[in-house]
Amino acid sequence: MPPGSALSHSKSNSMATLRRFLHRRTALLGALVLMIMVLAVVIGPFFLENTEGQIDLSVSRAPASLDHPLGTDFLGRDTLSRIIYGGRISLILTTGAVATALIVGTTIGLTAGYLGNVVDMILMRFVDMLLIIPGFLLAIAVVAALGPGTYNVMIAVGVAAIPGFARIARGSSLLVSGQEYITAANTIGASNVRVLLRHILPNAAQPLIVQSTLRLATAMLSISSLSFLGLGPQPPTPEWGAMMADSRDYFTTSPELILYPGIAIFIVALSFNLIGDGLRDALDPHLSQS
Length: 290
Hints:
The chain is an all-alpha fold. The chain has helices at 3-22, 25-47, 79-115, 117-132, 135-146, 150-176, 180-187, 192-228, 240-247, 256-283, 285-289. It is elongated, with a radius of gyration of 23 Å.
């Protein structure tokens, strides 16, 4: 196929994928809600006073008012400010964890599938060792080894997600490694890195994109759960899971202190899932037709 025709074909496929995605109303709803949440945590601090860490016991657990639209927590800190600042931290940790898993897992999977033999056996046995331990328990074990902390919990959740990406990348690599254009690239002296990046990775891109989007929801829940257990960002850093843990003693008298961050976690995780489902159907037209 001539280069121009290949480029035109790729552009046509991309437009068809976009049209299928735009026809998924639930996916568009998820994307819209997620965009609003991201804009709120990115732009919100510019319109709010830096009150997420200011303690004022005279207004402890105050109801919603003009000064405090969502009220205050048990230390008199503004709940809305803490939700917004906490959302920034939660989203950064979530995307960082998935990005870590995507890069490491894809590298392992592509390398194992392309090189095969001993390399494949060693790398995939390492992945199998990670799969033996349930993901959340593995994340707890990693945090226990590294110590509680903001970035340690991100690394822990990322490590727990590596096997899924590695297996998807390896499957795609095995599928195309024997193709004629791969053999031709090796014949003309292309390096292994070039073959992996230019020829094999593009074939694994679609399932990895879907896996990344769906994994964002799981990572959000895992990070919030670890923070709730005290293994994530430490006080007074606002993070949605940690905020729920700090307020659990006041659930019967001030349930909104737990409900607000809980609702935020639910909305963002659901949005990620809706977008992931829409991408999966858009990238696989046979699945969307069925």
